[in-house]
Amino acid sequence: MSVKNNGPLPGGGSDDHPPLSRQRRAVLQHLRGRAGAVTVAALAQECGLHSNTVREHLDALVDAGLADRERAPATGRGRPAWLYRARPPQQSAVREYAGLATVLAGQIARSSADPHADALAAGEEWGRALVAGQEPARTPKEARGRVLALLGEIGFAPEADEEAREARLPRCPFVEAAREHPGVICNVHAGLARAGLAALGGEAERVALHPFAEPGACRLLLDAAPDGSDAPGGPAVPAVPTRPGAPGGAGGTDRPGEPR
Prior knowledge:
- This protein has 260 residues and is α+β, with helices and mostly antiparallel strands.
- The chain has helices spanning 22-32, 40-47, 51-63, 98-111, 115-130, 140-154, 175-180, 182-199, and strands at 9-10, 38-39, 67-71, 82-86, 159-160, 166-169, 171-172, 208-214, 217-221.
- It is elongated.
């Protein structure tokens, strides 16, 4: 049974800010991949950088309005450590392309012989372009976290578990287009996550996107069981395209909230 709802709220990318260096942007991506606040020492270990370097980047991100800083609860003598957390991405120019996305999705849906597979392939190209030039992740968890950070940059505001295996997506920069053509737009997003994870060293075949899986959000699995036993309710956009209408494939209705 599918959950009938209007899906995520509209979302945008990050606020306008001065260009970040590659290393500072990497620190920000790691920070956005964390579900909660983190200490300098913990983030430095994850990034493979010296604590003083990470502290400098974090303080600059706070000054730029991209992160928040707060004191950890006191547990004994001495001053508590600082905790840092990324601020949710806010409105940006990404939203300006929502109308174009709707037009292009409609064109693909009408003219493509296999719109679902073509949309997935387009998303994969987008994902590879977004991570081009980045170093591969050192661990599967890091790869998953960096994919979630990338989705945060675009405007999905992912809410992930501690291991970055599953994320709730309460926002979508193209939600209006997704409501109109979910079989196209949602496959683009699934392809983006799939190719981004693969390029960073993760397992693309474990990616599964469940559009409109719950009221107000979609669900993204980055470490799904091969047999789908850990999947939430509702149809998933598969990691590997199948022919439209095939069991478990991306075919079927193009309307959210209806059984496929």
